[in-house]
Design a protein that fits this description.
The complex is a heterodimer of chains A (94) and B (204). Chain A has 94 residues and is mainly alpha-helical. Chain A has 2 domains: 60 residues; 29 residues. Chain A is built from 3 helices and no strands. Chain B has a single domain, classed as Four Helix Bundle (Hemerythrin (Met), subunit A), CATH 1.20.120. Chain B has 7 helices and no strands. In chain B, helix 3 packs antiparallel against helix 4. Chain B starts with a helix and ends with a helix. The chains are: A mainly alpha (94), B mainly alpha (204). Chains A and B meet through helix 1, helix 2 and helix 3 of A and helix 1, helix 3 and helix 7 of B.
Chain lengths: 94, 204
């Protein structure tokens, strides 16, 4: 049965991912205390994106899915980034 | 014959999961729209957003982040446990996820009632008299965290249904699509919070 061949993530790998996510959260909280000015938003968004990528890749098993689903997920995120970019091009150059 | 049945089951599982992902994409754009509104207004009223964001309690936000991240791990582990046919551990981990979600909601309740105490809620006189940018910030704050809290609640219901079905054996180590999809939904709730937390609570 093919279902038994589905990837089974280990408990340990999930625990490692959680430690990574909590570390990134701590960094994110600490960085806001540094008063980086305009960079604060950029740093916070970069850290959040790394966290989101980690959750999608490991917790949501994207790493072990078919190429089709992988491309679909990446495609949707690219589409969303395009929506943001186009909105800001419109907003800033109006 | 049995091979064919397995093939059909495998296809059902694949399409079931694909359907769930497509649903999650629509959720992503639902919140994505709000993030876009937030981004544009933040660019327009950066000073007001700055002032308003300091009103939020970063400690409660951080605590809720820890709850949600941990709950994401427990639900991911519960799938591992069920796949390994360890039903009791799977049940325990789903239950832990629901409890962590309840802690998140309790925290949110205290956070909101504290604001309500100071008459800071949509439509109140206090909020109407705020500078325009701050009004927009709090409007977005209530909309985003409210819609997210609604998702947490739906996730809790979904996980409870899954819990009952795992207990009764309808969801088991051979047929675990429901747990897989509930877990995916729960990870989405976590994913959205990962962005709400820094944008509303941290960037001041």
């Amino acid at each position: 049965m093919k279902q038994e061949e589905a990837h089974v993530s280990s408990y340990f790998s999930h625990a490692v991912v959680l430690v990574l996510l909590l570390t990134l959260t701590t960094i994110s909280v600490l960085v806001t205390g540094w008063h980086l000015g305009a960079l604060t938003v950029a740093v916070a968004l970069i850290i959040a994106s790394i966290k989101a990528g980690t959750v999608i890749t490991y917790f949501m098993h994207m790493k072990f899915e078919s190429l089709f689903l992988k491309l679909l997920i990446i495609g949707v995120f690219v589409l969303y980034v395009l929506v943001i970019l186009i909105t800001f091009i419109d907003y800033l150059l109006r | 014959m049995s091979g064919q049945n397995n093939y059909i089951e495998e296809q059902e599982r694949e399409t079931g999961k694909l359907g769930m992902w497509i649903f999650l994409f629509t959720e992503l754009f639902l919140f994505g729209g709000l993030f876009l509104v937030y981004a544009v207004f933040r660019a327009k009223y950066s000073a007001d957003f700055h002032t308003a964001a300091t009103e939020l309690n970063a400690l409660i936000g951080t605590l809720n982040t820890v709850f949600l991240l941990t709950s994401s791990m427990t639900v991911a582990m519960s799938l591992t446990a069920l796949q390994k046919n360890n039903r009791n551990l799977a049940l325990l981990l789903v239950l832990a996820t629901i409890l962590l979600a309840a802690l998140f909601m309790l925290n949110k309740y205290f956070e909101w009632s504290h604001k309500f105490h100071f008459k800071l809620y949509p439509g109140s006189e206090v909020m109407k008299n705020l500078p325009h940018g701050e009004l927009l910030f709090f409007g977005l704050y209530y909309m985003m965290t409210g819609l997210h809290a609604l998702h947490v609640f739906v996730g809790m219901v979904l996980l409870s249904v899954t819990l009952v079905k795992v207990r009764s054996g309808k969801v088991n180590h051979l047929h675990y699509l429901l747990l897989e999809n509930s877990a995916l939904y729960w990870h989405l709730v976590d994913l959205i919070w990962i962005f709400i937390f820094p944008l509303l609570y941290l960037i001041t």
